Amino acid sequence: MNPTISINDSHRLQVAPLKIPTRLLLGPGPANAHPAVLEAMNTSPVGHLDPAFLGLMDEIQSLLRYVWQTDNQLTIAVSGTGSAAMEATIANATEPGDVVLVGVAGYFGNRLVDMAGRYGADVRTITKPWGQVFSLDELRTALETHRPAILALVHAETSTGARQPLEGVGDLCREFNCLLLVDTVTSLGGVPIFLDEWGVDLAYSCSQKGLGCPPGASPFTMSPRAMEKLQKRQNKVANWYLDMNLLSKYWGTERVYHHTAPINLYYALREGLRLIAEEGLASYWQRHQKNVEYLWQELENIGLTMHVEREFRLPTLTTVCIPDGVDGKAIARQLLNEYNIEVGGGLGELAGKVWRVGLMGFNSRPESVDQLIAALRQVLAK
Amino acid sequence: MNPTISINDSHRLQVAPLKIPTRLLLGPGPANAHPAVLEAMNTSPVGHLDPAFLGLMDEIQSLLRYVWQTDNQLTIAVSGTGSAAMEATIANATEPGDVVLVGVAGYFGNRLVDMAGRYGADVRTITKPWGQVFSLDELRTALETHRPAILALVHAETSTGARQPLEGVGDLCREFNCLLLVDTVTSLGGVPIFLDEWGVDLAYSCSQKGLGCPPGASPFTMSPRAMEKLQKRQNKVANWYLDMNLLSKYWGTERVYHHTAPINLYYALREGLRLIAEEGLASYWQRHQKNVEYLWQELENIGLTMHVEREFRLPTLTTVCIPDGVDGKAIARQLLNEYNIEVGGGLGELAGKVWRVGLMGFNSRPESVDQLIAALRQVLAK
């Protein structure tokens, strides 16, 4: 003890036990976690090298391969939120000087640009107005022009609600000898994904959207082609926490200690994935599509329109145009404070122009739509 | 939907709901979380910009200042485990070419060396046999020799159980105009710390040890001196996820979205910290000291000895010498499988030579000691 120094109590808050309102989370995420997932999370932690935990890690790996439809050996959950998994793809794939071509049609495309720059990439961009997507022809032209080492695209742009079609993009990348890196944060679970069929080399996601879990443990996968680039690199990955050379030895058969995993979040993730495997991906995807179509119809019924062309709308996240003369922020605040319903506002180009409404995982239910529409009717009528 | 591609069910594991044995976690961490903490964690998530959540973030900041005994404005929890918080200190403080001097007397000193190298530091080391600590004179000589921009020390070496005294080190660092960076992963909560009194500029910790929470949201703090270095740097921080320029705008009054925080882990952390503030730091520290002294006495009573000199032993983690002729790994396995008690093995120089026994947070109780000693008596007698 240090009897010479006295304890300073100026920051010793005396607060009551946690009281948090119960919200219906229909924004861009987090969505409400499935009750069974919360229950699983509540299990007392064990050690990160406990045989019981190592077995659970193997199950998570297999189930992630299932929801992503990939055979990639290196398919894991990183110990951070979706942005950490995003950074993990960039950090491990990018070597200083690499040309990284990013398709930017929203906020998260820009984030990829920022991250790739930090890892020394020669970053190039192609852009589209927010809410639109790139055609195969546009991508071919861009690959011809920039000859990148990596093409990075956002499958589901959380800021716009647009779904970037990926069929044929992997073949194109092979033709131009580059890796295909894809953001599936708002698609995994809720939107059909066939990583291997589409030739995706690196992908990342999160737990708190389509998978119906709390945030904090985030799916990451890389293909044998991406692994080869990693193994050939001259320098260490410039990020210790997310270095797949180290992480693969913890998730692989060696079980070399790397960091203390967020044990309880892995309990949760395992349960979220288990529930999807039990229901089956086809049913899970169809449910998301069916419920979002119900949402679109009901929104139209109360006179609202959608920002994204129907063909490219995500089943998980819808951008709803704020009618002229309506204060979008005030409406969102009212929904939260008076109805305990969260919807998101617009970002960047769409700030002030749209609400973002998510129907993801456990929240993709007709009841969510009914509850939101009833509240919207009332607040918009005022 | 993609009717042309059929879903591959080869990774569709059909598994039962989670069943995890209940362990008494007396290794180097995680420790068992306090039951009230698990209960708080189980609250349904809200959004990361929900006013209810932002209020909770403020409470966490204040309570972290209390347990660390600092007034640092930038005191937050990063959205990853302790290693992420460690990397956050290095990433934000280190500019390419900076001389970073690391005191290495265990595994985590070496990890700091590895990390600092990845951020372009000119890394120098001073070393001690594992289990020993550096004197002020030795530190002065090293500062004179290396003239570093940053001196990095491990307050509580999780691999050895040694406590590095920090009194006077901050003054020394000011004399030599360098920042003092300190690992408090295994000390925060359980070991007296006076960050401001000691002149520490950067510190990090974890949630799953002295604070009695599950792992995954990790304390980080930096002083105004360290902030000044950050603000003056020429290049972006080479890590987007842990960039304090961005994170401080989310934790500060601006509330600019950065990433989706692991909401439920913050619920847990808030409760863990709240319980400490309720009990009071002095009592909390004394409890750790009293219980570990009871452990030492009981270990001696069954003929075991400790690796670290008494003066420098941590109250949170004890390295116990494995007696000659005893298979340490086999004993640990037996404790786990037959008694549901986890203790850790040795790392690096101490591999095969010690067990690591933690009494941290909720687990720092006489009952933990009794349960361990009773089991050890039996397995060692066989």
TrEMBL record, chains A, B:
It is an enzyme of class 2 (transferase). Its cofactor is pyridoxal 5'-phosphate. Its EC number is 2.6.1.44. PROSITE patterns: AA_TRANSFER_CLASS_5. Signal peptide: none annotated. Belongs to the class-V pyridoxal-phosphate-dependent aminotransferase family. PANTHER family: ALANINE--GLYOXYLATE AMINOTRANSFERASE, AMINOTRANSFERASE CLASS V. This is Alanine-glyoxylate aminotransferase apoenzyme. It comes from Crinalium epipsammum PCC 9333.
